Amino acid sequence: MPSASTLNAREQRRVVAGTTIGTAIEWYDYFLYAAVAGLVFKQVMFSPEMSPGLATIVSFASVGISFLFRPLGAFLAGYCADRFGRRAVLVATLLTMGIATVIIGVLPTYATAGAAAPIMLIILRILQGISAGGEWGAAALLSVEHAPAGKRGLYGSGPQLGAPLGLLLSSVVLALVSAFTTEETFMSYGWRIPFLLSAVLIVVGLFIRHSVEESPVYSTMVERPDTAPATNPMGTLLRRFPLVVLIASLVLAANTASGYMTTGGFIQSYATSSAGLDRGVVLSAVAASAVGWSLSTVAAGVISDRIGRKNTFIVGFIVQLLGNLALFPLVNTGNAAAFTAGLVIMSLGIGLTYGQIAAYYAELYPAPVRASGASITYALASILGGAFAPTIAAALTQSTGGTAAVTAYLVAMTLIGLVATLCLRDRTNVDLSPDAAQDRSILAWHH
After folding, report:
1. Using one digit for the tens of pLDDT, what is the confidence trace for 70-92?
2. Tally of CA atoms within 13 A in the half-sphere of 156 that contains its CB
3. Could you tell me the superkingdom of the organism this chain comes from (predicted)?
4. From the centroid of its chain, how far is CA 182?
């Protein structure tokens, strides 16, 4: 008969697997839209009377608009996760994301439905945004709150790993469909296949998530009247920690601005339309960068357990800065190997400023408002950094005729993230239990 410690270790591994796979499926759906927006939607979902440049900007705006609804998802899911538990939220968000994705796969185009096509597309993208806003906080806390002592960074890198795995999966599926269809077939109906495949992924994700146990921290809060969940967690959060929410969101915003060059579809669109690279080559390069992002994401979690979250961010932002400076000079060569190298260098920095986020955000907030705090901080970061990064990049390229302004924008965002990191204390391995003192000395200048 297995010991209690063996059962506990087994449950911890099951939680990490469940949150990682489920989050990967969510991000597959989310990133798939962004990639297809840059490759297909700008041509088939919007009025042909638009100029190609305007159609690209509008298409990326449809990617970004979903971010405006992520705080709504974060608010709803954070409240429910703090009041009713982390696990139920994960099932609800997975269903919402998956159903919206499958419906996108059967939408009529502008040629068939006129203006109704982009309207329906944007409504479904908004549903994806609400789901993505609610998904992350519950998944992150479930992993971190189950983690053994000294391994929160590693366990928390599980749901973080879901993002590059989702990018890898969406890029590989798109590349395969592109390889086995002609250009005409791909633009006609081939692009729909990856969206429809999401139906299979939903079933897999629901099966895995249903087997995951509730967070021990939340279970303790429910069982004891003196540590009961907050009745108004969001109100408490915004009353006590508004500056922490803002500064912590800028840390991740710096990461997402760079990350959404690829996950938001800008690089795919720019490389095929301006750098003259083949779509299959571009998708393969993005898949390679996703592998680099995955490895550096796990590395960041492990390293942060050794040297602290704050020090890991500082190293990560320096590497990300080098990636910012190298990306477009390599992309603009029009050479497939150089293009791949540029994306991989960028992805290493992105992973080193991403893998420790789950543990970092969990350690910022006390147990009664932790899900609300982590969720709303993450959602705000996505708006400030990733939401319109592809739109901004497309507009800067269109107005300047080059990519130097895009590089300057990414460098500025990275430096903002570095400064924000320095403004918060390192709280690595702080007590996460409901009994822990609700420490206000999170800001670097408070003692």
Report:
1. 888 888 888 888 877 777 787 88
2. 30
3. Bacteria
4. 31
Report pTM. Answer: 0.83
| Whether the predicted pLDDT of 132 surpasses 90 | no
User: Which residue is associated with the tokens 């005409």?
Assistant: 184
Q: Distance between CA atoms of 142 and 136, rounded to whole angstroms?
A: 10
Q: Do residues 397 and 271 touch, judged by C-beta distance below 8 A?
A: no
Q: Which amino acid appears at position 338 of this protein?
A: A
pLDDT category at 2 given cuts 50, 70, 90 is very low
Q: Are the C-beta atoms of 270 and 407 separated by less than 8 Å?
A: no
- Cα–Cα distance measured from residue 256 to residue 384, given in angstroms and rounded to the nearest whole number: 9
Share of the chain above pLDDT 90, in %: 36
Tokens linked to 322: 């080098």
Instruction: Copy the structure tokens of residue 104.
Output: 């996108």
CA distance 135 to 154: 19
Write down the pLDDT at residue 64.
74
**CA quadruple 217, 364, 154, 259: dihedral, nearest 10:** 130
Task: Give the pair of three-digit tokens for residue 78.
Answer: 């954070």
Whole-number Å distance between alpha carbons of 31 and 14: 25
Domains of the chain and CATH, by start: 11-215+231-422 (1.20.1250.20)
